[in-house]
Write a structure and sequence with these properties.
Layout lengths: L27 E8 L2 E2 L2 E8 L2 E15 L5 E11 L6 E4 L4 E3 L6 E2 L2 E2 L7 E4 L4 E9 L11 E10 L6 E9 L30 E7 L2 E5 L3
Length: 218
């Protein structure tokens, strides 16, 4: 299945501060998911359970930012929509990390700026939006943030295997700012805010012998 770009008529989840100052390191830069080689505000993975629509996982744009206290963070949004009839969706926080930015990979630091739960759980018929926060190691500056991948996994009740994906992100180089920036706030858009403008890469979860298995796109 050929994946198509997803373009949504909406602004960025977390907007970068405009402006800059020559010769001064960046303090904030917007980061966006990449789909078919293009930056997008939101990328989505459709889910199927037993051949029926089972919801979707969405990754949203965010920021790499140096806060007033000196911490350097990467923040991106995630939304989990569970449209299955009877299966709980679980995203293990220990399986969420940044790769291709530093070695070893950068572990998730917080969910919604709070202490992390062991998993992000979404019951059947429900949806949950969260902000993923990653603290950059001391050797990684905001100016070093150009491209990375967000690794994540989804467990579906009864599935033999998890769905595991790496979503690519890239910095918006023209949006780099050297001005001080207050911590950004915001929430992922609700379902009514989302406008589908292209095909989504599909993930399929199908039962076999009364159990569920997860398979990559066909």
């Amino acid at each position: 299945m050929k994946n198509k770009s997803l373009w949504l008529g909406m602004g960025t989840l977390l907007a970068a501060v405009a402006g800059g100052c020559a010769g001064v390191g960046s303090t904030v830069v917007a980061v966006r998911p990449i789909s078919d080689g293009r930056p997008v505000n939101l990328t989505s993975y459709d889910l199927q359970v037993d051949g029926q629509p089972g919801g979707r996982i969405l990754l949203a744009d965010g920021q790499a930012i140096r806060e007033a206290d000196g911490r350097r963070l990467v923040r991106v949004g995630m939304r989990i929509e569970n449209q299955s009839g009877d299966q709980v969706y679980r995203v293990p926080t220990g399986e969420i990390y940044l790769s291709r930015l530093a070695a070893p990979p950068i572990a998730l630091t917080a969910i919604d700026r709070d202490q992390m739960p062991g998993t992000v759980e979404v019951a059947p018929g429900e949806a949950r939006s969260v902000e993923l926060v990653f603290a950059l190691p001391a050797r990684v500056r905001i100016d070093d943030v150009h491209a990375f991948k967000v690794h994540w996994a989804l467990l579906i009740d009864g599935a033999l295997q998890p769905i595991v994906r790496d979503t690519p992100f890239a910095a918006s180089e023209l949006d780099r700012s050297s001005q001080s920036a207050a911590p950004a706030t915001g929430e992922l858009p609700t379902m009514s805010d989302l406008k589908r403008a292209g095909g989504f890469p599909q993930q399929r979860a199908m039962r076999s012998g009364g159990r569920a298995t997860a398979q990559p796109p066909m």
